[in-house]
Amino acid sequence: MSSFLNADRPPVFCPGCTHERITKALDKALEKKGTAPHKTVIVSDIGCSGLFDTFFNVHALHGLHGRALTYAQGLKLADPALNVIVTMGDGGLGIGGAHVLAACRKNPDITLIVLNNFNFGMTGGQYSATTPTEAVAGSEFLNRAEVPMDICLVAGSAGATYIRRCSGHDPQLADILVEAMDHKGFSLVETLGMCTGRYTKRNRLTPKAIDAMIDAMPKMNGPVEKNLRPEYGEAYRRLALEKKHFPMPVTIEKAFDPPAPGREEIVILGSAGMRIVTAGDIVCYAGMAAGMNVSMKNDYNITVLRGQSVSEILISPEKIGYAGIESPTVVIAISDEGVQRRHGMFATLTPETFVLKEKSVTIPGTPATVVEVDFKALKVRRRDWALASLGLLAKEGRGVTPEMLAFAVRERFNEKMAAIAMETLEKMFRS
Ligand code: SF4
Predict the structure, then answer these.
(1) Ligand 1 atom closest to the CA of 16, numbered from 1
(2) Which overall architecture, per CATH, does domain 264-430 show?
């Protein structure tokens, strides 16, 4: 196969830049590897290494700084036959390090070339995640206050299955890259090189010095035995195939007429453990069964069984653009905590607003129509107060009907739970 280089756009780097050697080595490697250009993708990061994709006649993706690996993994998952190569500098490595760790942990069949030249070359030689502490960088003393990162050691501890450290001037670089591409899994090749435009203007660094650096660093020569395992895409597809049950989208056809044709804005004010969100769900199912558009917005703490729980449900014949409640038509007040959360709302209600209040709950003064219910006297357990309130709403013809609720309960719960819920609702219909 002939060169993959783009004859219309020859590589242009500063004179002596190691990136140029790596470009040529990658071209040779792609030739040797022999994957067709339309099955080869170079995903480049930002910086001088980000120019790579423009120099080759292959597919290319150039995205946000530090994120190249995320795009690459998506491409490889979508088409496992692709040969996906990522080029990233030490700048992108520092910015998107978490994505490098994720790739090491996942083991996707991607080759990452880290073009480490110890600084942000393109933007003026600022220090990066790999700048030696004693180096002179274009960002004053900042590198002297940090320690540089050894990405190969980090990758090894994060689970990378292939790690290679070499000089960007290594005459064997093309063969090294072929071996990395042939590795079934995530391969990381760190090339150490010279940024002649910035770094070596302030620091002495030669190919010989790079060789000496590599000799002094932990050896990284390819497959990492302790980390070897199946490739991510293969593992993903095998596990997905084993999965037998998939949640299907809920489709609800119009089967009932709503009690009134207009929009209802229902606010349920309760506490955690009172199944407020479940009650909101039921109202939504019921609304959909009446051919209405619905939305639900919930407000509760991250804690379990503590704190307020508020659900705001819209039922509307028109499409809902904003899911917030502007002017409630129905308020269910069944806990002081919930009422406290929306205490300012009560003064703004109108006489048309229907407020259902449990006897033990205190609400602020309001011009709304307030109806009190004593669930304790009706022998309804506190955790069922929200559901029981829906039964009373249906009885009053506010927002839902008994038929809509019965349908919603059957859709929302399993058979046993639906039967228990219906007992509570029917008790309210009869009350
Ligand atoms: S700035 Fe540095 S990395 Fe960029 S092209 Fe010039 S020498 Fe190469």
Answers:
(1) 7
(2) 3-Layer(aba) Sandwich (3.40)
